[in-house]
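Let's practice the habit of predicting before peeking. Look at the sequence and jot down your guess about where helices and strands might fall. Then scroll down.
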Amino acid sequence: MSLNTMAGRGVLLAIVLLGSACGAIAAGFVLSVVGAEVKLVLGGAGGTFLGLATLGLAACRFVAEIPRRDEAAE
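Done guessing? Here is the structure:
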């Protein structure tokens, strides 16, 4: 499957967001096990989700972009 089609980009987006959600759940679970307050658990899980989603989307854009011909010539 080509990554440069709308379907390919949708699949990559789904993978990144599901992975970010799983990471956020794991971070929230670890914080709750160690006895953090509810505010810290929710904030840590939310921050983890935002960080992983941003990193994953940037990585997907870096990998999936094809350089244009005028940029490749330089």
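How did you do? The mean pLDDT is 86.
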